[in-house]
Amino acid sequence: MLLDGKNTVVYGGGGAIGGAVARVFAREGARVFIAGRTLSKLDAVARDITAAGGKVETAQLDVLDHVAVNEHADTIAATAGGIDVALNAVSVTHDQGTPLADLSLEEFMRPVDGFLRTLFITSKAVARHMGGDRPGVILTLSEPGARLAVGGILGHGVSAAGKEAFARILAAELAPANIRVVTIRPHAIADAPAAGSYTKDVFKPVAQAAGQSIQEFLEHGLAQGTLLKRLPTLSEIAETAAFLASDRAGAMTATIANLSGGALVD
């Protein structure tokens, strides 16, 4: 198993991506700690993991509360003996499709402040308990908006670019401590709406303007802009995360795993 004996933390573990990754981490032998704001969603993921024979613990946690996040990480390290892998899969609802002239400062800053603040808080909390004789891995998530030159995604694009820069610089800082930092950059996710993702809320105005349903917009709009003519699935993202978190990817850091289906070509 890829992650046998590893202690893993998934922030936003009740969400579509976080839950999918947590399930795969557990299947691959990891002890999984999932944290997030909505206990019912965390419990649903935990039931799946337990039913499959995995090890999981849940914690209701506001990742914007740096004191609570630090205490949670300290507790995990004390009980489990350290933290080997952490993924920040926290979602921040934000605007897409509004041009500069109509975009408020609040809406522009919502993803910039929200995503980067949670990334800073969670990374700082877990890094103290990683590395040394046990290699540590911090996984982050980004989006194609970090590099796309299209209108209407100012806040989204800036926040995504910020997350990628954050991960790259953090990787350089933490490398001497034997901690890797790798970013996963999927596109919009084909099956995310059905899994309860907030994707439908983000793209609803754009889809409506095009006279399409959310699924039609994903399948016939965004998907057609990729080389593969399809969007990534939650399973593909989760399986990639498990590989990147494992020792098999031990030479990978300060880089981006491009799961955009060829929407972006690195």
Automatic annotation (TrEMBL):
Iron recorded as keyword: no
GO molecular function, one term: oxidoreductase activity
Domain of life: Bacteria
Keywords: Oxidoreductase
InterPro entries: NAD(P)-bd_dom_sf (IPR036291), SDR_fam (IPR002347)
Protein family (similarity comment): Belongs to the short-chain dehydrogenases/reductases (SDR) family.
PANTHER family: 5-KETO-D-GLUCONATE 5-REDUCTASE, ALCOHOL DEHYDROGENASE, PUTATIVE (AFU_ORTHOLOGUE AFUA_3G03445)-RELATED
Protein name: Short-chain dehydrogenase
Species per Swiss-Prot/TrEMBL record: Kibdelosporangium phytohabitans
Top-level taxonomy: Bacteria, Bacillati, Actinomycetota, Actinomycetes, Pseudonocardiales
